[in-house]
Specification:
six-stranded parallel beta sheet, 2 domains, about 20% strand, seven-stranded parallel beta sheet, about 350 residues, Rossmann fold, elongated
């Protein structure tokens, strides 16, 4: 089978890094190509793709309306002669002249995305039930669910049997976009907990891993509450760093306002640390509605603070849930499961 993945940009992000894993698995049994349409890509990410994959850089200027780019894209597709065209943005298909002569697939990576072109694909792959439900609201059919996957064997496991009794180190991994990812709620919750230091005798710290447009705002919020000694912005870190350091934390918190899945939640589970997520559809699906993690009311700072406090005060319960979550995530969210499910959908 000849598979051609098409994506607009290829900078550091969950969808891009996961696509690397998918391609590196698929090249073992298929002929695979990757077409990056825009001139927005990270060469370090590209270098992580197996050399068996043909990487094609169209180098279109973002938002360009130059028709020559469309012609070049179609020449690339014709030259590669794929059986399957797998897109990772719904708008790509409108630039493919003869898309009806190929089997076309679209992976939808989040809720609330513009999906005006989704109806032109032969099949849609939703990364979660939450995403599928969102698609159904737009009357989009032919949808299958394939959960995101990770290379679980690369994530180092936490060794300690319970939370540190001297300090609690919290990690949050995502783009710094507080209106979507909700990092400001976590800062405000820490402020509430610091005020309760008489009832919580251990030091609580937060490491934010990621970059984004909200970094200045979040740092100002941190300073406003005098939390500079307790909060650290570590910037952008590659996956190898994250996979080797998750085990050093006592808790992963994902306070998102909307989230299609929550890959970092699954990674925290595999590392064996307790995870705490807002009670929205995607992350709740990852932790099986609270069976394999803790939840708080989305957007409720007091609820978030109380749940952090609960996890700290109940280390044995948190550890037991984390152990079960590790087994569940390793079994269900490994990248091999995702690739196998893709193959089954391709031949439908």
């Amino acid at each position: 089978m000849r598979l051609l993945h098409c994506i607009f940009s290829f900078n550091v992000g969950g969808a891009e890094t996961m696509l690397i894993d998918i391609i590196n698995q698929q090249v073992q049994i298929h002929e695979v190509g990757l077409c990056i349409i825009n001139n927005a890509y990270d060469i370090n990410l590209i270098n992580k793709i197996n050399k068996k994959c043909k990487v094609i850089l169209l180098n279109r200027k973002e938002s360009s309306k130059n028709l020559w780019n469309v012609v070049k894209l179609n020449k690339i597709i014709y030259s590669f002669h794929p059986n399957i065209i797998h897109c990772h943005n719904s708008h790509i298909i409108k630039y493919i002249f003869l898309h009806k002569f190929y089997k076309t697939f679209l992976t939808v990576h989040d809720t609330r995305l513009p999906l005006i072109c989704a109806k032109y694909y032969d099949h849609i792959i939703a990364i979660s039930q939450a995403v599928k439900d969102d698609l159904c609201k737009h009357n989009i059919k032919n949808v299958s669910i394939v959960h995101n996957g990770i290379e679980t064997h690369k994530i180092l496991h936490k060794n300690s049997s319970s939370l540190d009794k001297i300090q609690c180190k919290i990690v949050q991994v995502s783009r710094l976009e507080h209106l979507k990812k909700g990092q400001h709620f976590l800062i405000e919750a820490l402020n509430l907990l610091v005020k309760e230091k008489k009832t919580i005798p251990i030091k609580i710290s937060i490491d934010f891993i990621g970059i984004g447009s909200s970094e200045t705002y979040l740092k100002k919020l941190m300073s406003k509450y005098n939390l500079n000694d307790s909060i650290h912005f570590l910037g952008l870190k590659d996956r190898e760093y994250i996979y080797s350091h998750l085990k050093n934390y006592d808790m992963l918190v994902q306070p998102s306002l909307n989230e299609g899945f929550g890959l970092t939640v699954a990674e925290g589970m595999v590392a064996g640390i307790p995870v705490l997520v807002s009670d929205i559809e995607g992350p709740m699906e990852v932790i099986e509605s609270g069976k394999y993690g803790f939840t708080f009311e989305c957007g409720n700072v007091f609820s978030l603070a109380q749940q952090i406090k609960y996890i700290i005060e109940h280390p044995n319960e948190a550890n037991n849930i984390a152990i079960q979550a590790q087994k569940f995530a390793t079994r269900n969210y490994d990248i091999s499961n995702m690739v196998e499910n893709y193959d089954q959908i391709y031949i439908l």
